[in-house]
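Example S7 (structure tokens).
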């Protein structure tokens, strides 16, 4: 009976209410991507598709504002995932994060990750072309090609997945917390 009495006191205590709220908070925080972003188990990244056509530099800025970069693709599985996301929106082309900067003929990803996978239309990297320094995906084929950076196209932003919290829900949780233990 003493154990039952102690349990009843604990269940009505502030510590119990705080523990319950913390468990709900942990479950609620288990989301890997914010609203509007799609998670990929293969890469561990979050992706957000933007349907509006934009020039390559402006779309990279729009990604940077969101703490991300244009999509960088590192294997065929990820390439297919990006292709499917773009195809679901009915789009034919899509900006990728690969570009040639300055006088370099090398392609680099805007997120500075290794350029360790390529999927060019001709089966090999195209020759250097000063007027076509950015990279697009031909969505129906999933193949990449050089493009003038000024030709508008839809784009996908990419960032590492992490635990996300919605500020609105956090305010509600804080209000409930103060009612229970305050």
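Recovered sequence:
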């Amino acid at each position: 009976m003493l154990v039952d009495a102690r349990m009843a006191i604990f269940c009505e205590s502030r510590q119990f209410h705080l523990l319950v709220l913390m468990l709900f908070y942990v479950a609620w925080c288990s989301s890997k991507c914010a609203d509007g972003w799609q998670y990929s188990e293969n890469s561990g990244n979050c992706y957000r598709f933007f349907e509006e056509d934009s020039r390559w530099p402006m779309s990279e800025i729009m990604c940077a504002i969101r703490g991300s970069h244009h999509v960088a693709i590192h294997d065929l599985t990820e390439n297919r995932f990006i292709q499917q996301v773009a195809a679901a929106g009915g789009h034919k082309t899509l900006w990728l994060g690969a570009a040639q900067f300055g006088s370099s003929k090398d392609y680099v990803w805007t997120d500075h990750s290794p350029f360790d996978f390529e999927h060019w239309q001709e089966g090999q990297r195209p020759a250097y072309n000063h007027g076509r320094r950015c990279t697009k995906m031909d969505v129906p084929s999933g193949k990449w090609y050089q493009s003038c950076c000024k030709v508008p196209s839809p784009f996908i932003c990419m960032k590492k997945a992490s635990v996300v919290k919605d500020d609105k829900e956090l305010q509600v949780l804080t209000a409930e917390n103060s009612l229970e233990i305050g």
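Notes on this example. The first helix runs from residue 2 to 11.
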